[in-house]
Design brief:
The complex is a heterodimer. Chain A is mainly beta. Chain A has no helices and eleven strands. Chain B contains no helices and eleven strands. The chains are: A mainly beta, B mainly beta. The interface between A and B is medium-sized, with 25 and 24 residues.
C-alpha cells in the first residue's frame, strides 16, 4: 500500500515553455502533499506544502508565480513550472501523507531538462 | 530551510562489513526519519524514530537518536552490494509536517 506515482518520469522542454508534473496517491487519501527539488548530487530541498483544497505554502526563496501548485483532490497534486529556464532543470519529487500520519510516501520523481 | 549535516559524505566498504552514518540537526523535532535513494530514483522510507525514543531496530538497520546532542546514527549491519545507495536523514520539526533533509551519505558496498 501507500503508493505515490508521478507523471511524467522525465521531460525535456524548451526554454520559455511551461511543464506540468502530476503527483497521485494511488491507494490512500493524501490530505497533504509536498514538492521537493533535488539538484545533481545534492539533497532534497522542500519547495512547497499543499493541503487539499487550500493554497500551497511556499518555502522562502521559491517563486510561487513560477512554480504553480494545485491540490484539487485528495489524490492529485500538480506542479507547473512556468516559463522554464535551464536553471530549472532538476529532479522534482513529490510526497504525500495522510491527515494523521508522520510518514511521507514519495513518488519516483520527475527529471526535468530545459534546453 | 536549513539542512542538517551528515557524515561521512561518502563511504566505501566491503560486503559483510557494517556501515555507520551520522546525522546532526539544529531544531526541535517531532521525529527523525531515514531514507534510501538509489541513483536517479525516488526515496524509500527506512525507519522513523520519535523524539522520545533512543534506539530502534528494523531488520539489519539500527537507528539511534540523541536529542540532547541533536544527532542520530544509522547502522547497517552485514552490508550487501544491494545496499549501495545514498542515505538521507530527515527531520520533522515540532509543529510542522514537512521534512528537512540532511546532506546525505553515498554508500558504496563492494561485492
Amino acid at each position: 500500500g501507500a503508493v505515490v506515482s508521478q507523471h511524467p518520469s522525465w521531460v525535456i522542454c524548451k526554454s520559455g515553455t511551461s511543464v506540468k508534473i502530476e503527483c497521485r496517491s494511488l491507494d490512500f487519501q493524501a490530505t497533504t502533499m509536498f514538492w521537493y527539488r533535488q539538484f545533481p548530487k545534492q539533497s532534497l530541498m522542500l519547495m512547497a506544502t499543499s493541503n487539499e483544497g487550500s493554497k500551497a505554502t511556499y518555502e522562502q526563496g521559491v517563486e510561487k508565480d513560477k512554480f504553480l501548485i494545485n491540490h484539487a483532490s485528495l489524490t492529485l497534486s500538480t506542479l507547473t513550472v512556468t516559463s522554464a529556464h535551464p536553471e530549472d532543470s532538476s529532479f522534482y519529487i513529490c510526497s504525500a501523507s495522510t491527515w494523521d500520519g508522520y510518514e511521507q510516501y514519495f513518488g519516483p520523481g520527475t527529471r526535468l531538462t530545459v534546453t | 530551510s536549513q539542512q542538517g549535516e551528515e557524515d561521512p559524505q561518502a563511504l566505501s566498504i566491503q560486503e559483510g562489513e557494517n556501515a555507520t552514518m551520522n546525522c546532526s540537526y539544529k531544531t526541535s523535532i517531532n521525529n527523525l526519519q531515514w531514507y534510501r535513494q538509489n541513483s536517479g530514483r525516488g526515496l524509500v522510507h527506512l525507519i522513523l524514530i520519535r523524539s522520545n525514543e533512543r534506539e530502534k531496530h528494523s531488520g539489519r538497520l539500527r537507528v539511534t537518536l540523541d536529542t540532547s546532542k541533536k544527532s542520530s546514527s544509522l547502522l547497517i549491519t552485514a552490508s550487501r552490494a544491494a545496499d549501495t545507495a545514498s542515505y538521507f536523514c530527515a527531520t520533522m520539526d515540532t509543529g510542522r509536517r514537512a521534512l528537512t533533509f540532511g546532506s546525505g551519505t553515498r554508500l558504496q558496498v563492494q561485492p
